[in-house]
Amino acid sequence: MLPGPDAVLASVKASGKKALLADLASRAAALMGLDERKLFDRLLERERLGSTGIGGGIAIPHGRMSTLSAPRGLFARLVNPIDFDSIDDRPVDIVFLLVAPEGAGADHLKALARVSRLLRDRNLVDKLRATESADALYALLLDPVQTQSAA
Q1: How confident is the model at residue 11 (pLDDT cuts 50, 70, 90)?
Q2: Which residues sit opposite 73 in a β-bridge?
Q3: I need a surface site. Which of 21, 52, 128, 133 has the fewest CB within 10 A?
Q4: Rounded CA gap, 90 and 106, in Å?
Q5: Is 62 among the residues known to form the active site?
Q6: 60 in any annotated domain
Q7: Using CA atoms, how far apart are residues 121 and 137, in angstroms rounded to an integer?
Q8: How many CA atoms lie within 13 A of 44 on its CB side?
Q9: Which residues form the domain of 93?
Q10: What pLDDT, on the 0 to 100 scale, is given for residue 109?
């Protein structure tokens, strides 16, 4: 789901939720060959339905794009937590942006569930918060996925 180590950002600075989504849309669009403005608009549309801040300092903003063939992700660790209107009112510092194909109903939900499960692991999240290097973050994020898919 993460296209490569370049889809992991170790120290993102953002002044707020909208600025963060714009920054992540820009970075994801460049990595995934997407239209930046359309992606940003889709992310904002989804946030209007309800915050994707799932609690515990974590957010999983997501949207669908017709030009994708499979779900793709972008991970970001923020330098300073920001208000994300999360369900627990806690500021967010761990963000996993998920983009899925337009018609990927069940696949989109499965990908969202996989990311949610991954980020509910307190031990992993603690390691993600303590790790400075994008390469090390990438390795941490891949390891549980490989373990789960091998089971």
Answers
A1: very high
A2: 98
A3: 133
A4: 30
A5: yes
A6: yes
A7: 15
A8: 12
A9: 5-146
A10: 85
**Annotated catalytic residue: which of 42, 62, 77, 114?**
62
Domain CATH for 132: 3.40.930.10
Helix (H) or strand (E) holding 10: strand 8-12
Return the bridge partners of 64, or none.
Answer: 100
The answer to whether residue 101 is domain-embedded is yes
Give the pLDDT of residue 148: 43
What is the chain's Cα-based Rg?
Answer: 14
d(CA 110, CA 87): 21
Q: Is residue 57 part of a domain?
A: yes
151 belongs to a structural domain: no
CA-to-CA distance for 26 and 24, rounded, in angstroms? 5
- Region of 57 (left: φ > 0; alpha: ψ -120 to 50; beta: rest) is left
Number of domains in the chain: 1
